[in-house]
UniProtKB/TrEMBL annotation:
Keyword Signal belongs to the record: no
Gene Ontology molecular functions: ABC-type tungstate transporter activity; ATP binding
TM regions (residue ranges): none
ABC transporter domain boundaries: 4-234
Subcellular location: Cell membrane
Keywords assigned: ATP-binding, Molybdenum, Nucleotide-binding, Transport
Predominant subcellular localization, coarse grouping: membrane
First-tier enzyme category under EC: translocase
Family named by the database record: Belongs to the ABC transporter superfamily. Sulfate/tungstate importer (TC 3.A.1.6) family.
Entry protein name: Molybdate/tungstate import ATP-binding protein WtpC
Length: 377
């Protein structure tokens, strides 16, 4: 049985539709990330699950029970907010105990359980401290412990790490993942951070304009984006426009604005017509830059394929990785690869960009992916 079921969920604020006919199932014990840009409806969706917003249309079920009109305090769920919402006048222990106190649990039992929870989040030495005396990461763990102690069937987290610096955020992501795995707790995690979603999620639900546009495990969503929006949102890439020149039953040859042609594997039921526009995603990690003494690069039949010549205009070093910006004459593209001081390209002006055609991801004029998943593995 699914832990959460959303059926045709819609939420309107006046003329604004924040969530539009959204249906989704969250599996028992999984951590599902709702990922999308600001204003896409992900936090509103979470608030409807938790009972903080009432849907305009549709149904919400938790653990098989419809709770669409059930008040938040009567739902078997808990929420960790972005600002953590700790009580500044209470100690850390009292903050963690709060939910049990509201449930009428005895003093001795709630103190014992709160201390066990503080030990789990590695804050046993801070039970008498004020939240204001803690670091951001410690406050986040107190908020997490306070939500977990009431043993909710569903725990929701609304961008809880957004106020932390990069290093601390990465540490907390790993800690949160360990807590989820240890407790087998059903969690819905809202974020706009792609790296955070890929680190934490069992599955990712990508949202845009109030709708779920794709749900899947992180490798599937990244390697098999259903739409051009998903492809562009999940990471930096070079989006190149072109036009179909030749077709077969499972591939196309398309010219492009780079001045080269692309041979692209295509799903048999998605082969575009000759002359139709096509968009190709050249991911920077799937390309290489090599030194060149000439910008004249051709292949079979005089048509350049799987490579293009250009001029290196900028190089950014990122530790073990390097990003090269290359002007192909018609537009600039960027490539990322392992830094090799002996490669001989970094001090060059002219270069060749090469890629594997089987690693390309292509989209039709409607922004729908037409590349077979197996071609990208």
């Amino acid at each position: 049985m699914s832990a959460i079921e959303l059926h045709s969920l819609t939420k309107r604020f006046g003329e604004l539709t924040a969530v539009d006919d959204l249906s989704l199932e969250v599996k028992e014990g999984e951590l599902l990330c709702l990922l999308g840009p600001s204003g896409c409806g992900k936090s509103t969706t979470m608030r409807m699950i938790g009972g903080l917003e009432r849907p305009t249309e549709g149904k919400v079920s938790i653990n098989g029970e419809e709770v669409t009109r059930t008040p938040a305090y009567e739902r078997d769920s808990s929420i960790v907010f972005q600002n953590w919402a700790l009580f500044p006048h209470k100690t850390v222990l009292e903050n963690v105990e709060f939910g049990l106190k509201m449930d009428g649990v005895s003093d001795a039992e709630r103190t014992e359980r709160a201390r066990e929870m503080l030990e789990m989040v590695q804050l046993s030495d801070y039970e008498d401290s004020s939240p204001n005396e803690l670091s951001g990461g410690q406050q986040q763990r107190v908020a997490l412990a306070r939500s977990l102690i009431v043993e909710p069937h569903v725990l929701m987290l609304d961008e809880p790490l957004s106020n932390l610096d990069k290093r601390l955020k990465e540490e907390m992501q790993l800690e949160l993942k360990e807590i989820h795995d240890d407790l087998d707790q059903t969690m819905v995690y809202v974020t706009h951070d792609q790296n955070e979603a890929f680190t934490l999620a069992d599955r990712i639900g990508v949202m845009n304009d109030g709708q779920i546009v794709q749900v899947g495990e992180p490798p599937e969503v990244y390697n098999n984006p259903k739409t051009q929006f998903v492809e562009e949102f999940l990471g930096d890439t070079n989006i190149v426009s072109g036009q179909v020149e030749e077709t077969t039953e499972n591939s196309v040859l398309a010219n492009s604005e780079l001045g080269c042609s692309f041979e692209i594997p295509v799903k048999r039921d998605s082969v575009p017509e000759i002359g139709e526009p096509i968009t190709v995603s050249l991911r920077p990690e799937n390309m290489t830059v090599k030194p060149s003494q000439s910008r004249e690069i051709t292949a079979d039949g005089g048509k350049p394929r799987s490579r293009v010549a250009g001029e290196i205009t900028n190089v950014i070093y990122r530790g073990s990785m390097v990003r090269s910006y290359v002007d192909t004459g018609s537009r600039e593209v960027f490539v990322e690869q392992q830094y090799d001081p002996d490669a001989g390209v970094w001090g060059q002006d002219n270069a060749i960009i090469e890629w594997n055609s089987d690693r390309l991801v292509a989209f039709d004029d409607d922004g729908m992916q037409i590349t077979p998943y197996e071609a990208q593995l």
